[in-house]
Structures are given as C-alpha cells and as structure tokens.
Amino acid sequence: MVSKIRFNQVKEDHPGTLRWNNNNTKTFVKWDCGNLGIAKTTVVNSYMPDCIFQLKETYTSGTDYWGPFSADDFKTELLKSEWTDNEV
Fold first, then answer.
1. pLDDT tens digits for 66-87?
2. Interatomic CA distance for residues 80 and 64, integer angstroms
3. What SS3 string covers 5-31?
4. First and final CA of the chain: distance in angstroms?
C-alpha cells in the first residue's frame, strides 16, 4: 500500500520517513488542508490528496486502513500502546 502513496501530495518525503507502529503493521501520512481555519476536529474530504482517495477506493476500511482522522483524533490514536513513540 505504501507504494501507492504519492509523496509529493503528503507531508512525508518518502517511504523511509514513515513512522510505523510497534509491530510494523500500521503507518500513516499527513497532508495539509490549507490555511482555511478548519477545526482540528474536522476531516475535510475535499482537501484529501488524490492518492488517499484512490487508496480508500481500492482497500477496505477497518481492515487495510483506518481513518482519515482529524488532527485531534489522530493525536489520541498515537497515544495508544501499539505506537512506539508517544510523542504527539
């Protein structure tokens, strides 16, 4: 699935910059929603990169991927014990 990510559309630069959970089964990417004053509790699909839309159409939510998460929900997710570094 990582090979489907267009790194010019997300904040991470390349596969080597991805952060993985403890057992290397989950990772994530972040993208910018622009400076529109959007609340950190909101997911705005119109600002989702094309590559993320394509992943959502190809794979199964809750099995192959989770999210998208708002910024606040994402911080909560990273506090779970399955993530190595609890820095948010």
1. 778 877 888 888 888 888 654 5
2. 18
3. CCCCCCCCCCHHHCCECCCCCCECCCC
4. 24
Q: What pTM was computed for the model?
A: 0.70
Residue 42: band (very low, low, confident or very high) from pLDDT cuts 50, 70, 90: low
Q: Which domain holds residue 70?
A: 1-88
How many domains does the chain divide into?
A: 1
Q: How far apart are CA 4 and CA 23, in angstroms?
A: 21
Q: Could you tell me the two tokens for 62?
A: 């809750």
Contacts of 81 (CB under 8 A, 6+ apart): 22
The torsion angles phi and psi of 43, rounded to 5 degrees, stand at: -105, 125
Task: Give the tokens for residue 17.
Answer: 């910059």
Q: Distance between CA atoms of 67 and 60, rounded to whole angstroms?
A: 11
